[in-house]
Amino acid sequence: MPVKLRIILKPDDTRKLILPDGIPKTMEQLTDEVRKVCGLNGEFRLQYQDKDFGDALVNLTSTAELEDLTTIKVIPITDDCSQRFNVTVLEDAQSSSFHSDDTEILSSPSSSVSTRREMWPREFPIPKFSYDTELQLEKGNAEYRSNKTRFKHSTKTKSDILEKVAEEIFKFKAYPSDADFSEVAEALIKKHPCLSEPGSYNGCYGWKQRFKTKMGNYRTQLKGTGCSELLVNSLKSKAPEDALPAKNVKRPKRGEANHIPDIPTGETREKLENERLSLLTEVKKRDNRAVVKDKMAKTFSLRRQEIVEKELRVEELIERWPALFTEDEINAEFLRITTVPLQTRFLASLDEHYSKLIELIRRKGGVLREKTQKILKVLDLSLEVNIKRECLLRCLILYFGEDPDQLIKEYLVVQMDEAETELASSTMAVFVIREEGDSLHPPHDIGIVIEGVKVLNRLPSVAHACAMLFGLIYVLNLSYPGELEHTFDALQKVFMEIEPKKMTRKVLSLSVKL
């Protein structure tokens, strides 16, 4: 059967590969086909979106992993990083716009035992229990399948199950949601059906409640060992006016895997502070990206604790961490926080949903058709991928009944004084400066302003700017702007696929239609 594959060459270059004879049997045949169709020279390797890991990109070692409509990314192999397992960030020597932060393995100097390397999985993996517990469950499952007799577990067995599962939960989250606990309980019953409970509407409600209680006890236990993510919410760590158990609790807001990481083994706050001071000098040097990148990775835990615990203003953060406010470091920091690549996934997801979303917009009538008429006209006149992405983002905002001007603020070069005044009072926005009012011509400048401060400029497109702004919200631990709540919720859960379980009704409706 013919097979179609989506090939990502660069963030702004995605192609369709049609294989009339189906998926090749060997990697060599597939590589030759990609090389021929895409006109590639030099060595490269392939990654594919693995459903077991939430569609994260994983190195492709066998064509058996592929199926129809799979997404593949081409990763160039350079001499200095060829075939190494602990790859940091591959750079394209010819193009500074090509980022491959999605290949960064989270085993940098910033890592510790508590560093999480993946998000909450689609199917929760029930761990192996102690030998005697596994033996009892194996016999219990066999008996349940033959005559539906449920396993009567002892206190010791139940304690072992709760302890091991709590440890596995904490590998992904310190504060699981109610839906997460439901998934865990269902996964336990699926793997060990003999543990299902009579009288429960789904056979595992009692286990769900036990896991909730156990996780509370487990957090208390870890707090005593000095876990930063939990200590920040202890009464001793709070200001006197906030010294209440349920007040000002600093939990992950939007699926952050590494919200407040621990200081790495062998490091101290004093050592990391010295690294931060060294960074202030290193960032001013030319052609010093490798050193800056290494020091930024090393000081991740210190920076994250400052941002979340002290809630510093943007001006203060720029002064203390100037290297953070670059495209490369925003991509790297977002990956460290969420374990998800930022720019590559954001742009690829816009391209993936482009056709269906535009088709959906064109079918709409009434006020939405009237408001999108001008945008769709620009879309029909241009084949430029960045303009198409910008139009898509504007249509997405209007689809939710929100105002694109709240996110993307446009000015002419002759209006610079007016723009400076207005942007100084903006909480969060992408600004576009044009030579003339024609959307089909490249802008004079594109940048981002947060809390009235310009944090980035000279960005290649509005879509890139929106990706960077989305990343900065995570990096700086900010809240979504209230007037664009549905848009950012959709970008997070539908496009970036971060914590997609709990959606608002509008976002869920769009997700189903896409």
TrEMBL record:
It comes from the Eukaryota. Residues 2-92 form the PB1 domain. Transmembrane segments: none annotated. InterPro entries: PB1_dom (IPR000270). PANTHER family: SI:CH211-193K19.2-RELATED (PTHR31025:SF27), SI:CH211-196P9.1-RELATED (PTHR31025). This is PB1 domain-containing protein. It comes from Phoxinus phoxinus (Eurasian minnow). The lineage of its organism: Eukaryota, Metazoa, Chordata, Craniata, Vertebrata.
